[in-house]
Specification:
The chain is mainly beta. The protein is built from no helices and eleven strands.
C-alpha cells in the first residue's frame, strides 16, 4: 500500500474494522467501510477535550462515560521535533520524530516524512497531514504487515 492522505471529516467514527491484509500498528488506527485508514479520536461531550484512546472518564474534567468517538481530520501542525541519529537495530537512521497538534485537538507523536533531515529546513508550525503506510520490515504473528501513520508536509497549506 502506498502512503494515503487522511480524509478530512469529523463524522462519527462508527467503524471498528481494519484495512484488509494489514495489522494495525496502533489501537486508534481504524478503517472505514471502504477500507480507508483513519485516526480515531475520542472527544469529551462535557469539556471538548480530545484523546486517541477510549477512557472511562475524561482526564480533564472527570466526566464519566462522556467520551464519543470521532474520525480525525488528519490535518495539523508540527509542535516540536527531533532528528534521531541512533535507534534500535534494524531501524534506518537518521529520521525525524515529531509531536504534532492536529486541528481537531488530538496530539500525536510519529515520524515526519518528506522533509530534509536538516533542522534548519523544518519550521515549527509546519502544516502537515497524516498519511498511512506499512512499517518497513515488520509483520505480525500471522505474517501480515503492520500499517501505521506518518506525517507529511501539507503541500497545499499556506506556511
Amino acid at each position: 500500500m502506498t502512503a494515503t492522505a487522511a480524509k478530512a471529516t469529523t463524522a462519527p467514527a462508527a467503524e471498528t474494522t481494519f484495512v484488509p491484509g494489514y495489522a494495525p500498528g496502533v489501537p486508534f488506527l481504524k478503517a472505514d467501510a471502504h477500507g480507508q485508514p483513519y485516526i480515531e479520536g475520542h472527544r469529551c461531550g462535557a469539556c471538548g477535550a480530545a484523546y486517541t484512546l477510549p477512557r472511562l472518564a475524561c482526564p480533564r474534567c472527570f466526566s464519566r462515560d462522556a467520551l464519543v468517538p470521532f474520525r480525525s481530520s488528519g490535518r495539523g501542525h508540527v509542535h516540536t521535533y527531533t532528528v534521531v541519529h541512533r535507534s534500535y537495530p534494524g531501524i534506518k537512521v537518521p529520521f525525524v520524530s515529531a509531536i504534532v497538534d492536529l486541528d481537531d485537538g488530538l496530539v500525536l507523536k510519529g515520524n515526519l516524512t518528506g522533509v530534509p533531515i536538516d533542522p534548519t529546513q523544518i519550521p515549527f508550525g509546519l502544516p502537515i497531514r497524516v498519511v498511512f503506510d506499512e512499517v518497513p520490515g515488520q509483520k505480525d504473528a500471522q505474517g501480515l504487515p503492520y500499517l501505521t501513520y506518518f506525517f507529511a508536509p501539507e503541500k497545499d497549506a499556506a506556511a
